[in-house]
Amino acid sequence: MPHDLADRALRRRAWRPVGATVLVAAMIAAVALFVTWQREPEPVIRPADGVTLPARPSPAPTDVRTDTADVPPKKLIAAGRMAVSAYYVVNREVVDEKNERLRRTWHLYDPRTGGYERTPYVWADVAPGLQVAAVLEGDLLSRRLGVLDLNTRRMLTWIDLEHPVGSAVWSPDGTRILATAYSSYPDDLVGRGEQAMPPMDGRSSRTGYYIVDVREGTADYHELPPMADSRPGDPEGRPFNVSSRQDLGWSLDGTMIYGPTSTRPDRVFFTLDGEARPWPEGQRYVDHSSQSATSPNGKLVLGGAGLPTKITDAATGAVVGRQKVLQLHAWADDDNVIALGCAGECENEFNSGLVLVSVDGSRMTQLSLNQDANRNGSWHWVLTPR
Fold it and tell me: According to the lineage, what is the superkingdom (predicted)?
């Protein structure tokens, strides 16, 4: 899912109230889930020199898998080279008499059932190939990162961290994990009920990041303060970020990392050691996402959000196709794209779901059931190469 889309959706929903009954039910379900997962702890494998990761499937499957009956989905959703490897549901919970916060409940793909399984982790990310997942254990932030074998549901290793982290993402080659560190929880809301909103002061508690080499068993920490908030009248037009959550991501080739911005361009790049670098030549990204905007064969480029969307020729910039969808998310293959479609004639932009659309827009397959994306408790997908 695009890096910033969830945050933007959360901001839109920040003032939508959640009844006390829903909160109590959610707490009871969370306790029951925790007890269930703790009842029979799985054995932990702790190789002294890292983890031997399961081999990625070769060739990778390319079939189309849909679930147009359930919200959230119960069966795997996939098309071509990409799959919905995980999803999360966001709900609000009361902190005190003046504040609330957002909490994600994660569901991971389960190859044993062909569906998704709810987990007790505060964050999850599936590696390319859908064989293992990085998970963060804890309450809000985490000092413990695990590598979970999706096929056996056994934990391959746990890695203890000195600095608390709030997100974790796999490198494009599926061997390293980038975990962003925070000194305080970045999804707090100011106010209660209809008045609850993310902090508007532009302060973020990001402190740095870990690069974990899973095969070597190493976790290297680097300091990296958050990007500053807006600078009114800045003559240099420098990028800024007003969000409290500023998770880092990988460049397409895994040689650099990037931090999100609230400006154009939508990210800034760093070396793996945290030194600022120019935008990598030839790399084009889907806005607010780690997905490549360039087709696998290098010939076409996905356009930005907006109805209709467009796809252009990489060499000339000429429009080669327009699609009646809201957003283009990822290439399924050279001729088809996983996108966010809308119900009916798109009268309501929030009544939407995943679709597979052809470059010329003439063919469309519904992948997931439409949902009210502006509703508290809606699900947010994560797309991963198969």
Answer: Bacteria
107 close to 142: Cβ distance less than 8 angstroms:
no
Amino acid at 171: S
Alpha-carbon distance 287 to 178, whole Å?
20
Beta bridge partners of 165: 142, 181
pLDDT at 87: 98
Rounded Cα–Cα distance for residues 297 and 316 (Å): 15
Contact 199, 168 (CB under 8 A): no
Centroid of chain to Cα 376: 18
What percentage of the chain reaches a pLDDT higher than 90?
Answer: 73
Question: Which secondary-structure segment (H or E) carries 155?
Answer: strand 155-170
Q: What is the pLDDT of residues 234-250, one digit of tens each?
A: 667 788 898 999 999 99
Distance CA 196, CA 289 (A): 26
C-alpha atoms less than 13 angstroms from C-alpha of 346 in its C-beta half-sphere: 12
Evaluate if residue 44 carries a pLDDT over 50: no
More confident residue, 97 or 327: 327
State residue 202 phi and psi, 5-degree precision: 75, 10
How far, in Å, CA of 117 to CA of 359, rounded?
A: 33
Q: What pTM, to 2 d.p., does this model score?
A: 0.86
**CA–CA gap between residue 104 and residue 100 (Å, rounded):** 14
75: β partners: 115
